[in-house]
Amino acid sequence: MKLANQVAIVTGAGRNIGEAITKMLASEGAAIAVVDLDKTRGEKVAADIEAAGGKAKGYVCDVSKEQDIIDTVKAVASDFGRIDILVNNAAISDNKHILDITKEQWDLTIAVTLTAPMLFGKYVAKEMIAAGHGGKMINTSSTSGFYGRPRSIAYTSAKAGIVNLTRSMAMQLAAYDIRVNCIVPNKIGPPVGKEEFNPDRKVLNLRKREGVPNDIAKAVLFLVSDDSDFIDGTHLMVGGGCSTLMPGGDFKG
Hints:
- The chain has about 250 residues and is of the alpha/beta class.
- The protein has one domain: NAD(P)-binding Rossmann-like Domain (Rossmann fold, 3-Layer(aba) Sandwich).
- Helices cover about 40% and strands about 15% of the residues.
- β1, α1 and β2 (about 30-35) form a beta-alpha-beta unit.
């Protein structure tokens, strides 16, 4: 068990990538705080983990609200006695053109997708520092944070910000033995805010298949385990090699 006796918080854990991450970390011995805005989804994932012999509890949290984040972190620390791992997975997308997006839509997307990881990192780091045992944090970016898109102006900006947020968090928390890294998925499972994967959605990469949530979960497990002890402040592309392809190139697979 790579994560025996450790406690992990995973946000946006009620479905898709977040659900896969919780179950992967639980399978390696971690107790899981399943954080989601949807109470039913979060509790179902927690129940699934417990039915498989693990330990988990669901927490309802609106990550756009700082007080919700503070209350959730305090509750997890109280319920489990410690926090060793934070996975900032929750996000929303605006799917808006710059000429159409409202300030309210921009603010909410940034709050959930960029500000919440910073705030969770802040309050979890305080718990880790007080406990004196260090920890690991993972922020979730996207290939959308590395390229422009015809739609989604706030989401692409937030996901780009996640990469440098990770670098700064890593530098500022290194003195406390807290490692911070970032994963960068590409078109894994249903799009953000959607329930089902569209089989007609174009996916181009070197592996010649669609990415699945467990691809991300395996990468997260690596980055929060001792196997990656010498990796800090970086981003890991998990997109089947899509980032190596030149836009407009002639790759045929």
